Amino acid sequence: MRILAVGDSYMPPEYFRRALEPLETTHDVAYVQVDDTRRFVPATPAEARLRELQGTPDELAAWMPGVEVLFVHGAPVTERVLDASEQLRLVGCARGEPVNIDVEAATARGVPLVNTPGKNAEAVADLTLAFVVMLARGLREAQQFLLDGHQLKDNWEGARFMGSDLRGHTLGLVGYGQVGQRVARRAVAFGMTVVVYDPFLDEAVPDDVERIHVLDELLARADVVSLHARATPENADLIDARALAAMKPGAFLVNTARETLVDEAALDDALASGHLAGAALDVFHPMEHAERHRLLRHANVVLTPHVGGATHETLFQGAEMLAGELRRFAAGEPLLYLVNPEAVAA
C-alpha cells in the first residue's frame, strides 16, 4: 500500500519513520512535514470546527493523489484532503483526540479513522507526581530564593522551606481513566492514600484505591486534588469558587488535564486568601494583553506550557500505535483504536 506520514513542528516525520521503517519492505511509505508558517483559513463550516492543527488542506491535498493510508499528527484532514485521493482507505491520527480531523466527512466516505488513546498517559502521570512533589516541598519558593541572589550559607537554610513528605497524605483524583490510573499507582508507591471520583467509571478500582461517589466528599478529604477528567461542555469550570471552598484548607490543586475544568479567577482568589496552599497547572487560559499569567503572582504556583505529553517516548509510542493499526488493517484484522466504526460497517 502507498502510505503518507505527515509530520509537523511538534511531531516531526522522524518519529513516524522510526515506527514505520520495518514496514517499508512491503509498503511504499513517504514522509513529509507541513509548513507551520502557513495559516489555516477555514473555507467551510466543517473546517471551522477543526482545531489544534498545523498546515493547510491545500498543502496536504497536493501530496494525496494515490495515497491509500494517511497518517498525521496535527495536519488538517478535511473534505478537500479526503477527496484528493480516490484510493484512500485508512486515516490515522497520532493523538488522543482527533480534533484536526473531519470525522463526519471520513465516515461519510467509508474511510476508517484510528487514533492513539492513552499515548501520553505515562508522561502526564509522571508530570502530575512531579507537580505534587514540587508543591509539597515548596520547590518553587526554594528556587526563587536562589534566583533572587541569596546564597546557601549553611545547612540551616533549608528550615525556611520546610515541606511535607507525600506519605500519609491523601491524593484525590477527579477522573480515573488512563492517566488517573497511572497517577494512582505512582501515588500509592509514594505512600499516599488515593481516593477517586469518576461518575463514568464502570469497572472496580484496585484494593489500594477508594472510590468516592460525591465530588464534595473527595474535595473535603484530599490534601491534593488532581484533575484527570475529559473536558466536556457539562464540566466546564468544574472547579469553581464553590468547589474550591469545599477543599480542605491548606490543600493543593493540580491540573494536567484541560484548562476548561478550572475557574481561574476563583482559583486566583483562593490562593490570595490563603485557603489553598498552592497550585500547579500544565494547562490554563492564555492572558490577553499581559506579559505574565496572573497566577504567577503567587509564590506557591507552578505553571508549565502544556508539556504533559511532550516527551520523545510519547511521540514514538503514538507512531508505533498507528504502525500496529496498519499491520492489522493490511492483514484484515479488527482495528483496536477505531474512532468511527460506522465507516467500517458501511
Walk me through what this model shows.
The model has no long low-confidence stretch (mean pLDDT 96). It contains 13 helices and twelve strands. Helix 1 packs across helix 12 and helix 6 packs across helix 8 (178-189). Helices cover 33% and strands 15% of the residues. It has 346 residues and is an alpha/beta fold. The strands form two sheets. The chain has a seven-stranded parallel beta sheet with strand order 8-7-6-9-10-11-12, with helices on both faces. A five-stranded parallel beta sheet has the order 2-1-3-4-5. It has helices spanning 13-20, 45-48, 57-62, 79-82, 103-108, 121-137, 139-147, 178-189, 215-221, 241-246, 264-273, 312-330, 341-345, and strands at 2-7, 28-33, 69-72, 90-93, 113-114, 170-174, 193-197, 209-211, 224-227, 251-255, 276-281, 301-303. The chain folds into two domains: 2-119 and 311-345, Rossmann fold; 121-303, Rossmann fold, CATH 3.40.50.720.
Highlighted features:
2 domains; Rossmann fold; alpha/beta; five-stranded parallel sheet; 12 strands; 15% strand; 13 helices; seven-stranded parallel sheet; 346 residues; elongated; single chain
